[in-house]
Amino acid sequence: LDLANWMGQLAPVVGDATLLDFSLPGAHDAMTYDLSDDLSEGYEGMGPVVSKILHTVTPVVAGRFIRTQGQTQGLTIIDMLNSGIRFVDFRIMYSDAPSTILPRKDWYCLHGCQSRQPALAYLKQVRAWLDAHPTEVVVFWVSRHGNPSLTGTAQYPGTTAAERRAFYAQVEALFRGRLFDAGRGRLNETSVASLWKRGQQVVWYAADYEQSTNSSVLAMDARLVDNRLPGS
Fold it and tell me: What is the CB neighbour count within 10 angstroms for residue 217?
């Protein structure tokens, strides 16, 4: 089985199933393979002043240690997709660029430390991969720290709704024509074969769904994904 194309290769078996009939191979904190030594702004449990100070000093004080403690993945996003991963835990925060003093904000991935590149740079790699693998469907589950129930600035501290929507607008533009369109039917009633026919290869589950996506039919509420640990 070619893991980079496993959905397409299994078409005779899975084509009539819906995506929610699958147990998709997934990656927890998927983007931690490319963390910088800079603590992300808005990191869980820290106020904006403290996280801003630590963002500035961690490249020279303890940043490497924090980065190694936060790294959960060793494969790049493309290596993950080629290995069969189809569910991506994609954590983001609006933060100054790594290793800079002057403000230059963008959306970065994070787990303690923030990623070296903006989040959109990794998504562009995914878009190119999808172009080369037209039968594969990838699910993104997007939040700051894995808690989809938080909304507004509780989810993304120090941000405005306009900043959050601007990022999602970039996602929509990047994956234009590839995002699952809930306006054409429910995901649990749409066969994988139908997704292929429509060219819909990306399912975007967003935390802070109403504000961040303006309730777009091209995204879904991250709270629909049950991510609770057993017994929690």
Answer: 12
Average pLDDT of the chain is 91
Residues 6 or more apart whose Cβ sits within 8 Å of residue 21: 14
Q: What is the DSSP letter of 191?
A: B
Measured in whole angstroms, the distance separating CA 93 from the mean position of its chain's CA atoms is 11
Other C-beta atoms closer than 10 Å to the C-beta of 149 total 12
Amino acid in the structure at residue 211: Q
pTM of the model: 0.92
Contact 70, 113 (CB under 8 A): yes
CA distance 101 to 143: 26
Cβ 11 vs Cβ 189: under 8 Å: no
pLDDT in tens, 4-32: 999 999 999 999 999 999 999 999 999 99
Q: Virtual CA dihedral for 129, 104, 144, 42, nearest 10 degrees?
A: 160
Q: Is 157 left (phi over 0), alpha (psi -120 to 50) or beta?
A: beta
For residue 205, the 8-state DSSP code is E
